[in-house]
Amino acid sequence: MTSGYVMGRSADEYERLRVQARVWQPATEALLDRAGLAPGACCLDVGCGPGETMRLMAERVGPAGRVVGLDTDADLGRAALGTLRAAGYDQCAYVEGDVESTDAVPDRRFDLVFGRLILLHLADPVTALRRMWRWTAPGGHLIVQDYDMSIVDTDVSLPVLDEWKRVFLGTYAAVGRPVRLGVRLPGLLAEAGIGLPDSTDVAGRLEPLATAGWMLTATYRSIAPTAIGLGLLSERERDAWLAGMASAMRDHGDASLLWPLLIGVHVRRPPYERRSDRR
User: Fold this and answer.
1) Whole domain around residue 65: which residue ranges?
2) pLDDT per position as a tens digit, 51-72
3) Whole-angstrom Cα distance, residue 193 to residue 126?
4) 232 near 184, Cβ under 8 Å?
């Protein structure tokens, strides 16, 4: 199994990431506030994507602070930085790199190291966590959020949802990506030698299919090229599902759709450590 983003890199996918970030903004803000970011703090956003969380960090640390985004997608990262700088967030910077192997992260340690929906795309999330912990300053905070996608469901039986699960979850399984990584986060922290989290958070979302169906449609569209390449889906089946999903949103718009659970963990690094405690 190798690391890689199975959802594709397209303008539509980038817009989906922006909307998704806004959907989960309250859950992410709650964890950022738990870390008590102060003006002048230095933050690292691992897998920064379109930069929405970088903005939340920059608002908290102010112009005297520093916010660095790390992402393998240079086009998206540079675009995010341009948007942030245009909005006046000059304390933001972008670094192209892979959390599992990069040497490009600045040497200074960070008051906050954060990663949302990044570990599920990695071949070795434990190695990534160890590196993120090394980048966390004494007294600093590590926050990670990831999905349990297995619980996506509706309160009525819908064939389009069954097909979404077959294609979307099936593609993740076929490329060796976990669909329940969120519930594994405490165990992964322990395996990485970090220890159990100081606190956890579970955020859910339940809303009518008429307004939430876009999430199923957007994720299906994004993963379809990979699914087609794996032989799990044909172009004809893709087009038929998209038409069926549009009909379901119209005919069953009042059905309740349960989103993936966004599970977060927060660990504070001790301000003083024995040399043997450092990893």
Assistant:
1) 11-151+177-205+259-271
2) 999 999 999 999 999 999 999 9
3) 9
4) no
